[in-house]
Specification:
73% of the residues lie in helices and 0% in strands. The protein is an all-alpha fold and 78 residues long. The protein contains 5 helices and no strands. The protein has 2 domains: 44 residues, no CATH class; 33 residues, no CATH class.
Length: 78
């Protein structure tokens, strides 16, 4: 598989995800900014790994630590 074919496959995949996200109605941020919202979700899922080695601990942040912030996000989406 050539690099051009791989790049084309990636671009087509991103375009299909964008079309899917534009038509969904459950998440307005995902509908408005599909690529950025997907990237944010990926980085959020990688957060525990990144914080373990490079950033602060879950309970060291101010004014709200990571555990409290995740609880607030969870309550907001319900």
């Amino acid at each position: 598989m050539s690099w051009a074919a791989l790049a084309a496959a990636i671009i087509v995949g991103i375009a299909l995800l964008c079309l899917h996200d534009k038509r969904q109605t459950s998440d307005p941020v995902l509908r408005r900014f599909p690529v950025l919202a997907r990237g944010r979700k990926i980085l959020t899922s990688l957060g525990p790994f990144l914080r373990q080695y490079w950033f602060s601990n879950d309970r060291e942040e101010t004014p709200y630590n990571r555990i409290t912030r995740d609880w607030i996000y969870l309550r907001h989406t319900q």
